[in-house]
Amino acid sequence: MKNRKPVGLFISMAFGAALAGASIGQAATLAISCGAVGQELEFCKTGAEAWAKKTGNEVKLISTPNSTTERLALYQQLLAAGASDIDVFQIDVIWPGILGSHFIDLKPYANGIEKESFPTIIENNTVDGKLVAMPWFIDAGLLFYRKDLLAKYDAQPPQTWQELTATAKKIQDAERTAGNDKIWGFVWQGRAYEGLTCDALEWVASYNGGTIVDKSGVTINNPQAITAIDTAAGWVKTISPEGVLNYAEEEARGVFQSGNAVFMRNWPYAWSLAQGPDSAIKDKVGVSALPQGGADGRHAATLGGWQLSVSKYSKNPKLAADLVMYLTSPEEQKRRAIEGAYNPTIATLYKDPEILAAVPFFGELYDTFVNAVARPSTVTGAKYNQVSNEFWNAVHSVLSGKATAKDSLAQLESSLKRMSRGGKRW
Amino acid sequence: MATTGVETASQVARETGKTLSPRKSQLTRGRVRAAWLFLTPMLIVVAMVAGWPLARTIWFSFTDANLSDLGAAQFIGLENYLTYVDGEWYGVLADGEWWNAVWNTLKFSVISVTLETVLGLIVALVLNASFRGRSLVRAAVLIPWAIPTIVSAKMWGWMLHDQFGILNHIMLGIGLISTPLAWTASPDLALTAVILVDVWKTTPFMALLILAALQMLPTDCYEAARVDGIHPVKVFFKVTLPLIKPALMVAVIFRLLDALRIFDLIYVLTSNSKDTMSMSVYARQQLVDFQAVGYGSAASTLLFLTVALCTVLYITFGRVRFDGR
User: What is the ipTM of this complex?
Assistant: First the structure.
């Protein structure tokens, strides 16, 4: 296809596109957008390249911002412009409602294989009867702790936030007296972005304080939620550095993995990195469910996770769907689980002995993953991003000491009601 | 006064052109035609890249447009700006966050431009003196200005990091602070950090503009001052400053316009944080994050009006003249 004249080139391209649409045999170049948090990009690359080799096509990787908030903004601009530059999008669990109209229905390509994934995720990814995204991996907030430090000071992994606060304070003070003056008790995601919504939802839910908004309306302004946020605000500058107010996942992992924190709240991906050969804390890390809010609380983890979608503006939707099916297949999910500690979306893989050997906590914390708390993205639909924004800003102002939880949540309630005409019309 | 001469000449030309238009010489007509011919491409480009987007933004601000479906936009009048529904005010002008953003932007602009002007003046005076290796220093000073803002903001983001940032490391080392400062996270420090980086980045620009003015100054005033034995400080305030004032005022307005629409630096350093949110960050959040193109366009239009208002005020009260010195 080496035509010199542009017209000839155009015609051959048009033919190429038509042929690619007709049969999968035609070589084509697809573009996939992958996250780049931790080793995400690396795994996306190896997976996509294996598919490319198998099918004789080419795959271009497009790396996107680490912050999910910024990534959504980028996708929204690309998709609103109907750009065909990216064929396969990696989308967050909260986005099907926001972006769903730009993606093709994957059901005809899945041939029923989607039924092997957790039904809650499939339901989450179905918009108006269309399966707009295939689940790739799920996430749930976990508590990472330093086994060695806990053993040194004869402490147990905390069951409640109060225990965590006390243990963190004890070890931090003792270590500092011993000359380790960079140590902090607890690091987490406190920047004003989607990650703070996840963290704060865990605090609130662990005190049985609801999920911000539900079908009955705005629920966030309740005493349990106020206690939860106040507890978290008490950590800043005592067991957590003030800088945590501008930390996302990778900043928190930076502090923890260089050995400067006792506890960290993060997603499962941090496990295989903390256990990596260049990690300062290799073999010193334990993982448990996040603490519960007081004796009557519950262990709550926010449901996260990423899906793969095919843009309806793609020039090769069939091929792109084939790539999505390959990447979300049980084999590929198993590889990613063993090498990268990415949680499979398929229940049977949690009983796979090879996976459990590589990532023991997948078995121990199975219930945590299955019962993870979903953010209210279904109820709020396209307004979710605005709701989340109001929520993280309200929490952030309490954490940074500019407002009390009582005032801030009352104000949040009124602005959410304002946004939805009394919590009824999102 | 060469300027006055030129002005009168052009005025005369204009007036004669008006009264004698039927008998305009062929040469004049040819020149006017040529001028328009040369101007046309520029006017078309300006209309396309500045005029059209501006008009479209203003149009969108009167609609309920949404980013996911721009075609379905409906005209809703001034509702995006201000509207009264069920006993409550809605719209950009009734939004506390907007006014917070306006206040942040004004604070940022006034403080950073003032600091940049003072520091730029000092740097320019130093660079104006002749010493060995002057051209090298002049080039070196320009480096911060040459680095793209995104790059320098990211770079400063790491240097200002509370745990592994070099700035905290140095300040801890020399005993200036006892605990690391959370530059970009602490609500009291975030705006300071943004101003700090902006001053670092833009002082060279001010210095360059002021240096250009300094180099055009006549030397005879200074010789006379030296002969009379006037103190250098007095010379600066009585001779240098008044002479470079017109150039300085123009430089300040350039910076002011730039500072009022600050976006990249703030967004990279502190993202959408309310402590540092500027008018542009607010508008972008509405437009992109919330997909509210109509509402965001209203904010953009208000931003445009605010910048225009500040410019008019500055030109009026600063008595800035653009027609040379």
Answer: 0.70
For B187, nearest residue in chain A (alpha carbons): A400
For A421, name the nearest residue in chain B, comparing CA atoms only. B86
Spell out the domain ranges in chain B: 25-88, 89-318
Tokens of A78: 């690309």
A383 → chain B, closest CA residue? B290
8 A C-beta contact, residue A345 and residue A136: yes
Give the model confidence (pLDDT) of B121-152 as tens digits: 999 999 988 888 888 988 898 899 999 999 99
Domain B89-318 homologous superfamily, CATH = MetI-like (1.10.3720.10)
Cα distances (Å, whole numbers) of residue B206 to A403, B113, B242, B243: 39, 9, 17, 16
Residue A137 maps to a domain? no
All residues of chain A having their beta carbon less than 8 Å from the beta carbon of residue B180 are: 241, 243
Its domain, for residue A86, covers 6-132+305-370
As a whole number, the mean pLDDT across chain A is 89
Q: Is residue A426 part of a domain?
A: no
A191: contact with B, CB 8 A cutoff: yes
Co-location of A156 and A90 in the same domain: no
Collect all residues of chain B within an 8 Å Cβ-Cβ radius of residue A247.
185
B194 to chain A, any CB pair closer than 8 A? The answer is no
Residues from chain A that touch B273, judged by Cβ atoms under 8 A, are 192, 246, 396
Contact of A388 with chain B, judged by CB distance below 8 Å, is answered with no
Distance separating alpha carbons of residues A380 and B85, to the nearest angstrom: 22
Distance CA A273, CA A291 (A): 23
